[in-house]
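Structure (tokenized):
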């Protein structure tokens, strides 16, 4: 751990990539592994555009269930430490695959201000945003809608009356190219820490290797081994909510 702490200096360019594991201690289920969502639900029936086209009601019921579950969750110590680092380190970038909004809530809680658009690079969108399924001209590209349940299922676009869809990135869909560019630029860093991701979903998983090629000291924080474990410079085995506060405490003591 000291090998990491000694590199977390005010001049260091620090990038953190998070996945579902960072929210596990908040009560948000992960996708893979024991208790993961994909144990009970098949991704291809719920997290693809084809699935939505086939059965939008089923897909929306799953997202409405997850919205209610996440609405009852609070950011944990891992989210709060990372929000604190964004203030402590001048060259800090946070990239997340998570759609739950808990990093943003942690900014509000730890820094007493809402998260700005550059505070969190969200690769896979947000569960709290929606889009018109037809991308109708009258509607914005996406908008926030934080209702956990909708009076009509599946919910409809207030502008054209067609369906709306969750504002997340499903399998087979392209990520927002601007967002990918921002994340790729952040792999030009001195320290790259991957936290709570199984490192199997691309392009996110590729950023770890990209950072290593760019000369970063790479670190993984995860209770389980992943495909990235053997290639990182340092693998810290444990929960993000335990390890990150430990690292933070050591930084304070320096
Ligand atoms: C803890 C913990 C604790 C537990 N503390 N840790 C290159 C190679 C191969 C395939 C591809 C490739 N490029 C693209 C692909 C295809 C595909 C892909 O990657 N497939 C692989 C699965 C094989 N990628 C895509 O389709 C992407 N699109 C794309 O690349 O567009 C270009 C393109 C277009 C057309 C064709 C091909 C390419 C889009 C990916 C979108 C992913 N979407 C989801 C759903 C989001 C919406 C929603 O939430 O409903 O995103 S899937 C799901 O996986 C979600 C997550 O963000 C993502 C990653 O999961 P994550 O975060 O890693 O979670 P888990 O559950 O997997 O892992 C949790 C980890 O936490 C575990 O390791 C635990 O041990 C750990 N943990 N407790 C710390 N307390």
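Design, position by position:
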């Amino acid at each position: 751990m000291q090998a990491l702490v000694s590199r977390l200096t005010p001049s260091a360019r620090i990038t953190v990539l998070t996945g579902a594991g960072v929210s596990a201690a908040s009560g948000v289920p992960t996708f893979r592994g024991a208790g993961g969502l994909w144990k009970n639900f098949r991704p291809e029936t719920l997290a693809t555009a084809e699935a939505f086209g086939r059965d939008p009601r089923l897909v929306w019921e799953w997202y409405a269930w997850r919205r209610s579950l996440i609405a009852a969750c609070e950011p944990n110590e891992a989210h709060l430490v990372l929000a604190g680092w964004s203030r402590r380190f001048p060259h800090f970038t946070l990239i997340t695959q998570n759609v739950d909004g808990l990093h943003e809530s942690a900014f509000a809680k730890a820094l007493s201000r809402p998260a700005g658009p550059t505070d969190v690079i969200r690769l896979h969108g947000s569960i709290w945003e929606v889009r018109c399924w037809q991308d109708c001209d009258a509607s914005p590209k996406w908008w926030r809608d934080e209702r956990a349940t909708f009076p009509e299922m599946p919910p409809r676009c207030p502008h054209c009356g067609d369906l709306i869809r969750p504002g997340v990135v499903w399998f087979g869909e392209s990520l927002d190219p601007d967002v990918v560019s921002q994340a790729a630029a952040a792999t030009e860093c001195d320290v790259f820490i991957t936290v709570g991701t199984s490192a199997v979903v691309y392009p996110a998983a590729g950023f770890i290797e990209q950072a290593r090629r760019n000369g970063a000291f790479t670190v993984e924080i995860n209770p389980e081994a992943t495909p990235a474990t053997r290639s990182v410079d340092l693998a810290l085995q444990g929960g993000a909510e335990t390890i990150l506060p430990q690292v933070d405490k050591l930084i304070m003591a320096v």
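Reviewer-requested clarification: The CA atoms of residues 3 and 248 lie 13 Å apart. The first strand starts at residue 14 and ends at 18.
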